[in-house]
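Work Package 3 (structural annotation) set out to generate three-dimensional models for the target panel prioritized at the project kickoff. During this period the team completed the workflow that converts sequence records into discrete structure tokens, so that structures can be stored uniformly alongside our sequence database. As a representative example, we reproduce one entry of 413 residues exactly as it appears in the project archive.
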Amino acid sequence: MKRLQPPLIYRYVAKEVLGPFFISIFVFTGILFLARSLKLIDLVVNKNVPALDILLLFSYIIPRFLEIAIPMSLLLGIILGFGRLSADSELIVLRSAGLSLKRLGAPILAIALGSVLAGLLISFYLKPWARHSLAVGLFEIARTRASAGLSPGTFNELGQLTLYAESITEEGSRLNNVIIGDRRNPETNRTFIARYGRIISDRENRTLTLKLYDGMIPEGSGLDFNITYFEINNVSLPHSVLHDEKEDQDFKGAGEMFVGELLRSIGDMKRDTDKEDSEGLKKLTKYQIEFQKRIVIPFSCLFVAFIAMALGIQPSRGGKTWGAAVNVAGGIMLIVIYYLFFAFASAISEQRFAPPWMIMWIPNVLLAMLGAYFFQKMGSEQWLAVSQEIGDAIARLFRKFKRTKPRESVLSE
């Protein structure tokens, strides 16, 4: 029976942690999702995109937020779970029964490893698939709007192109008697006139091309006026026809590649990029940083878990007041600082002062050192005294403030 007791305790501790963990994932993902979805809502309100298409696009942006929300939720879930055990004096009972608090690290380690595996699955496969699907979905909406959304007999604005077609087929694939005003280059504004044209889409490269047949391009004025005749001419439609995205999104970028594709691209660039090719080295560094990001963030769960466990454990005296509030606030501040360090490391890595893997892992190394220190002190009375002292110090500060305020008012009179 004694051999069965630790697993039962471990399951009980895991249950206390997993409840707030999953709730926190839902809350954090929802907050991040709402902030990003405002841009997609504009597609429904101003671009007349069907709501069902937008809901599908919404589902594609969730994985990128899950990757960030898992470490945050793990930290908060463990703090709240152990805070509840501390507040009800259950940790004191366990210690009285001879169970070391460090032994409770076993279920926390299991949850942390599960979070690491989930994060790796999301960053290696789910997020790249979702980002690519989102980009293709936006392209399909742009393609549909650029073809079926055109009105015959009127001037249609497509970014820096103005398109006029006398008639358009129901499918929107053939445009008759086409006139296009091209303002992409202010120094050489051109006009295309063609007997008919077709809109060609390339899903692989996410490009839209208007292929014109049997037309001409009048240019210049006065004595410099000339006409260029053509049988077939291609005019690229801007990718920002529907949404405000960067123009160079006509390829499968690093963020959309599965881990195998990303590693192959890094290997090819290492082999083909010369040391004096600054643009090539910049692109290589970008891909290396992307690969490191996919590993660093999931593995942060392993170190965050033990920091959160130490923050959650507190003495029962005052555990329901200052101790719990300070530990939760400290945990949230810690994760915010971590992400700031992570963003800073990403920016520094782009400057190529050192190998990206070395710089990108610095935030995790700092977390690991802090987690090892906390775990070492976690079961000692010294750590519990520090936790209590933080709350007592804040309480003394507020009591002092309350006593000082009336005296100041008397002196002012």
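The chain has two domains: 5-142+276-401, 160-237.
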